Amino acid sequence: MSKKCHDRHTWEEMQxxxxxxxxxxxxxxxxxxxxxxxxxxYVNKHKQKDDLVFDYDSILAALTGEELYYxxxxxxxxxxxxxETVMQYIEKKTALRxxxxxxxxxxxHQRQYFRDRFNASIVVVNPGKQVCLQRLQTNTRTDDYYEAxxxxxxxxxxxxxxxxxx
Length: 166
Description:
This protein has about 170 residues and is of the alpha/beta class.
């Protein structure tokens, strides 16, 4: 069965289950990786029109009215609180078909949390540390991204359960 046929069949099953009042979970994909790995690019390439996308950087830019990647000290708790609200929404019976959550999640337990909570697929975008650092040189992000990239690679734990993309 082709992916298109599989997706259509799954969608039809979900609609039938909703009509019968059964709880149906949204197809959740966690896209993890270091800063500048290409997580947002991956999601934009694979998402469909009505999918929900939670992108920390885009949410923060909307909240501050500043450029992408500007991160005031107060922002982490607020954006993670918003993410939790979005995740609670995903858990409810809704017409939502698919949700993408972009997260750093270098450690196994972080990715396992999403897998356990949503039965999520985990995609790790990992072009390699050198590629991320090269992208940083031609990017307008702040200097703390060097540290963030280095820290992600120092903490990254590989898992065969994840889908790996370069």
